[in-house]
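stuck on this fold:
=====
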Amino acid sequence: MVVIVALRGDTFGGDRSYESLVFTLRGAFRSMDKFYEYYPNVQIEPSDASHYTGGGNHRSTQEAIRRGVETVSERILRLQRARR
């Protein structure tokens, strides 16, 4: 399982790694749904935490990790049920 937490930009700048990553993957796979079909064990989640203020320990980063783990777990369970 891989959960990628990327920072979301704001109106006045910000990291925008989430937006860049999603834009690139949509270009390569045509949609995020197709990306997740190809890589069902990966989830990309946005976070509003800043690198410079201990972003890994920030509440929004921890919440993004939790959402990502839940999403991948549910997706894998759905795929396993569909294969039976």
Notes: Residues 8 and 48 are 6 Å apart (CA to CA). The longest strand covers residues 2-7. The chain is about 55% helix and 15% strand.
